Amino acid sequence: MLAPSRSRMGALTRVTVAWGMTFAVESIDHVVLNCHDVETTADWYVRVLGMRRESYGDGRVSLTFGGQKINVRPTGAEGWVTAAADAPGSLDLCFIVDAEAAEVGDQLRARGVEITEGPISRTGARGPMTSHYCRDPDGNLVEVATYRGAD
């Protein structure tokens, strides 16, 4: 059983779990996206989804949006700790936007993106949402969803 303790601001400050744990995951900080070509991948996410490209460390690239970021890792790169399978095109990602579903479809098409499915009703972390699916240059499945107007 979780026993959350909240600060004055309502933020979760500590969770005690019955089996002796003293913490629980609060959020995702970043995801690493393995790709064939960093420039092509970064350009697509900036051009299609409006993310911001940033450089850090020794020439590494990240894409930022809201309070999150995606580190863009070229497949086979040395010096990166990575998953057992270094495989571009193996992710399913869902991004939330604050727009009407029709706007999402219009923007994707205006940028030359093929919508593989949508608009379609789905259930997200916050409830009903409307999604459009497409693929990035490496073939990752990218879901662009909105909670606006969803039943």
Please characterize this protein's 3D structure.
The chain has 151 residues and is mainly beta. It has 2 helices and 10 strands. The strands form 3 sheets. It has a 4-stranded mixed sheet with strand order 3-6-5-4, with helices on one face. The chain has a 4-stranded mixed sheet with strand order 7-10-9-8. Strands 1-2 form a two-stranded antiparallel ribbon. Mean pLDDT is 89; it is low at 1-9.
Low-confidence stretches: 1-9
Q: Identify the CATH homologous superfamily of the domain at 30-75 and 89-146.
A: 2,3-Dihydroxybiphenyl 1,2-Dioxygenase, domain 1
Based on Cα principal axes, name the global outline.
globular
Strand order of the largest sheet: 3-6-5-4
Largest sheet: 4 strands, mixed
Q: How would you summarize the topology of this molecule?
A:
Layout: E1 2-6, E2 12-17, E3 30-35, H1 38-49, E4 52-56, E5 60-65, E6 68-74, E7 92-97, H2 101-110, E8 117-124, E9 127-135, E10 141-146
Parallel strand pairs: 3-6, 7-10
Antiparallel strand pairs: 1-2, 4-5, 5-6, 8-9, 9-10
What labels describe this entry?
151 residues; mainly beta; 2,3-Dihydroxybiphenyl 1,2-Dioxygenase, domain 1; four-stranded mixed β-sheet; 15% helix; 42% strand; globular; disordered N terminus; Glyas_Bleomycin-R_OHBP_Dase; Glyas_Fos-R_dOase_dom; GlyoxalaseI/FosfomycinResist; Glyoxalase
